[in-house]
Specification:
CATH class of the largest domain: Mainly Beta
Helix content: 40-55%
Oligomer: single chain
Shape: globular
Radius of gyration: 18 Å
CATH topology of the largest domain: Jelly Rolls
Strand content: 15-25%
Number of domains: 2
Largest sheet: 4 strands, antiparallel
Structural class: alpha+beta
Distance between the termini: 35 Å
Order of helices and strands: HHEEEEEHEEHHHEHHEEHHH
Number of helices: 11
Length: 256
Amino acid sequence: MSHFTLPYYPTENHLFAALSKEDYQKFLPYLEPVMLPLGKFLYQPGIKPDYVYFPTTAVVSILYTAEEGVSTGVGIIGNEGMVGLSLFLGGPGPTCQALVQNSGSAIRLKDRLLQQELDLGGGFHRILLRYTQAFITQITQTAVCNRFHTIEQRVCRWLLLSHDRVKGDHLEMTQQVMGNLAGGHREGVALAAERMQAAGLIHYCRGHLTILDRKALEARACECYAVVKAEYDRLPGNSINRDLLQLGLISQFNNI
């Protein structure tokens, strides 16, 4: 059970922020605020979950595990999105794990209630379609990055993507998690983190990481971060578009 209450019109999750108040009120009786602890698996491959999750302060990593048992990060979801796109797309269940990377709050909704709303079409369906495109871009760019770029560049990309999804500069990040996310061995990730710490970009100690110099991280990252960020910046519920929406200066779906 949660220890906080939902605001009347939440802007913490960008998908709900992009809705009109009238559309949001349709969901309000069915939304359940929850706390997501660090290390909790929300989804496992082949097991159809009962809920989809809309992070507000939590950050969730999507991991694919090969037959050899090696896991690699394929996506990251924060308050810009929804965990459970396989359900939205009509699949029988997830093919990847969903792991809470940073503990925090989220809003969950029963899958059957989401499907009922989506069957009606309308605003939320269009918003989720646009978000799905952005998430596919992230997955595609991750595959390119893991194939062609260095471990240090990949670590920088994941740190920046994670930083975009939290308030402040602190991340909960073990070397094992960094290795999974960056698609590299733990030893290589540890060496990259040591170099970045020596250069004053980050401070890392026992699973707690602080971003010290974001501009330097951006300079060391490959172009993959900028490509993904630009795609998410175009979503109707991001911080810039959300302010314009509330002022009535743009329509809800001008970017869809």
